[in-house]
Design a protein that fits this description.
Blueprint lengths: L2 H54 L3 H4 L1 H24 L1 H20 L4 H29 L3 H32 L4 H4 L1 H15 L14 H19 L1 H4 L4 H23 L13 H30 L5 H21 L1 H8 L1 H19 L8 H11 L2 H13 L8 H36 L4 H30 L19
Length: about 500
């Protein structure tokens, strides 16, 4: 073969490699767009709830179901959806989730009654679970190189954090400028923007086949247990933590989850292989995430309420007041996180980011009744940039030992712990704030000081949760060598 022919062959091979590399990054954009749609919906509804209540005639207790009807199926189906991605192909599950979510969003926007909206929100939660459960697993498969994976997960985490802040802004602006129906209609163009390119950019997968893990009984047990558990958590604001309702339903949820664990230990083809928990990185990262997300999501919801109820902000002003958080997390997660993780390792990056979050909540816990946004709130929004460092590191640790065959279920598990942490954070911190404020008002304190003091207590507890997650990171995620799939071509990487 002549040298000219060899040069042409090398050039063609180089072009093909560059084209394949570009396609991977375009595929990441598609996955991020789908995730953005799901994340937006998680916060965009928060600011619009008063308008929804006035328009559709929700009672105070019934209004909570605008959020609960989404959270329950979302949390309950994540693990099952992740495993389905491994079995039938993650691309199919991703596209199915986008389709269901978009159709449900249209139904939400057209809702004319509380029952209609709640039913559509339940369907929306199911679609969100299908899309979210497989996204992180596809990223792990697309980017086997640790350095590239770090950058990809940083971009993915940026979408999650900034999307939440963007949801606050969009929720306020759309509700004030148009009406609350548009907070759901906005999902339709995003679904098209993600779904149409996904058909071409995401590689088709046949999966392992349903026969390799179609554990119907296990699926029924874990879905029922998670749904019942989240239902119990979100209803504590109405019934209280020590009520027969909470204790009874909580015990039933734990019994179903315990039965699921027993089933997985005995099943020939388990839905969630218990061997995954031999990974110290996976087990520790999921436990740390429950605490961290409980604190961060609770902070996000409670700060929005504080700005409106204590400082008197409107919906749009509240959204813009939360925007610096998204901007700072974007700067850190896109510009710094991959470099810091690559230089110091994900464990140290996680601890550094968590330390910044502790400082933020410690500062917020002393916020006065008549606060200045610039002096008392804005520094907190800037320190929350620690999340842009901690969240990509946490995702990387949770997926560090996942093989291509198990990446879907590992992704589903990671998203499940995230959702359970968010539900716990809102329920626990919201109940604490409301209960403390009510006690102060009963003791003769003014309404505004009582409200502010209730929020201060919740922020203090959030700080404690972050300190505990920092301690668990130090203990459970000690430096070691992670296992990798045989033949993957990767070298063992330190935590």
């Amino acid at each position: 073969m002549s040298s000219g022919t060899i040069d042409i062959t090398h050039q063609l091979a180089g072009r093909q490699h560059r084209a394949a590399d570009r396609r991977r990054w375009y595929a990441l954009l598609v996955l991020c767009a789908g995730t953005l749609m799901i994340i937006l919906d998680g916060t965009i509804v928060t600011v619009a709830q008063p308008a929804i209540q006035r328009d559709l005639g929700f009672s105070d207790s019934g209004l909570a179901w605008v959020m609960n009807a989404y959270q329950i199926p979302f949390a309950g189906l994540l693990l099952l959806a992740g495993r389905l991605g491994d079995l039938v192909g993650r691309k199919r599950v991703f596209l199915l989730g986008l389709t269901v979510f978009a159709l449900a969003s249209a139904l939400c926007g057209l809702a004319q009654s509380p029952t209609w909206l709640i039913a559509a929100r339940f369907l929306q939660g199911a679609g969100g679970a299908l899309t979210s459960a497989v996204s992180l697993g596809m990223i792990v498969t697309l980017f086997p190189d640790p350095a590239e994976r770090g950058r990809a997960i940083g971009a993915f985490s940026f979408i999650g954090a900034s999307g939440a802040s963007l949801g606050m802004v969009l929720g306020g602006v759309l509700t004030q400028a148009l009406n609350w129906h548009w907070i759901f209609f906005i999902n339709l163009p995003i679904a098209l923007a993600a779904g149409l390119p996904a058909l071409r950019l995401l590689d088709a997968e046949h999966g392992l086949g349903l026969g390799k893990g179609a554990d119907a009984l296990g699926a029924l047990l874990v879905t029922g247990g998670l749904m019942l558990g989240v239902y119990t958590i979100v209803q504590t604001g109405r019934y209280g933590w020590g009520s027969p309702h909470t204790l009874g339903y909580g015990a039933a949820a734990l019994a179903l989850l315990a039965a699921f664990v027993v089933r997985q230990a005995r099943a020939t083809q388990p839905l969630l292989p218990l061997r995954l928990f031999r990974s110290r990185a996976l087990s520790g990262a999921n436990l740390v995430q429950v605490l961290m997300i409980a604190a961060m999501f609770g902070f996000q919801v409670l700060v929005a309420l504080y700005l409106q109820q204590v400082l008197g902000y409107g919906p749009a002003a509240t959204g813009f007041g939360m925007l610096p958080t998204g901007v700072m997390i974007a700067v850190v997660s896109l510009g710094l996180s991959a470099k810091v993780i690559g230089r110091f390792g994900p464990r140290r990056a996680l601890m550094a980011g968590n330390a910044l979050l502790v400082l933020a909540l410690a500062y917020l816990s002393r916020v006065p009744d008549h606060a200045s946004y610039t002096v008392d709130v804005l520094p907190v929004m800037l320190l929350i940039a620690g999340g842009g460092l901690a969240l990509p590191a946490l995702a990387g640790l949770a997926m560090a030992d996942a093989t291509p065959q198990d990446s879907g279920v590992a992704s589903g598990l990671f998203n499940t712990s995230q959702t359970v942490g968010a539900a716990l954070g809102v329920a626990v911190l919201g109940t604490l704030a409301a209960g403390h404020s009510a006690a102060l008002r009963a003791a003769g304190h003014g309404a505004l000081p009582a409200l502010a003091d209730g929020y201060r207590l919740a922020f203090t507890v959030s700080c404690g949760l972050l300190l505990l997650s920092l301690l668990l990171t130090a203990v459970l995620l000690r430096p070691g060598k992670r296992r990798v799939a045989a033949g993957s071509g990767e070298q063992a990487q330190p935590y």
